[in-house]
Amino acid sequence: TVEFNQLSGPIPPELGSLPLLEKLHLTSNNFIGELPEELARLTTLQDFRIGGNYFTGKIPDFIQNWANLNKLVIVGSGLDGPIPFGIGLLTNLSDL
Fold it and tell me: Which Pfam families does this one have (predicted)?
């Protein structure tokens, strides 16, 4: 977790190269830009929190790849647009 650290800039796409990552907490920093497509490879992710940042773009469709996801926190993240249809495929999701 790197929550509440005043980190800034875009999310490094290299985070998508961590295939065993289960929790990614980026809440309350100053991250910007779109979420990198490489994050789609985080198929073991269970907990993803990005609220309180300045991301741009829509909620990515690749979230549906995270079949093990049980918690998704994107409040105040800066992302916009509709909730992707694929979120309905996340049968382990218990906290949205």
Answer: LRR_1
Go through 9-39 and write b for each residue having 16 or more CB atoms within 10 A of its CB, e for each that does not. Answer: eebeeebbeeeebeebbbbbbebeeebbebb
d(CA 4, CA 25): 10
Q: Is the dihedral of CA 73, 75, 79, 84 positive or negative?
A: positive
Write the pLDDT tens digit of every residue in 36-87: 999 999 999 999 999 999 999 999 999 999 999 999 999 999 999 999 999 9
User: Model confidence at 95, in pLDDT bands (50, 70, 90)?
Assistant: confident
What backbone phi and psi angles, to 5 degrees, belong to 51?
-60, 155
Q: What is the C-alpha to C-alpha distance for residues 86 and 1, in angstroms, rounded to an integer?
A: 26
In order of their start, the domains of the chain are 8-89 (3.80.10.10)
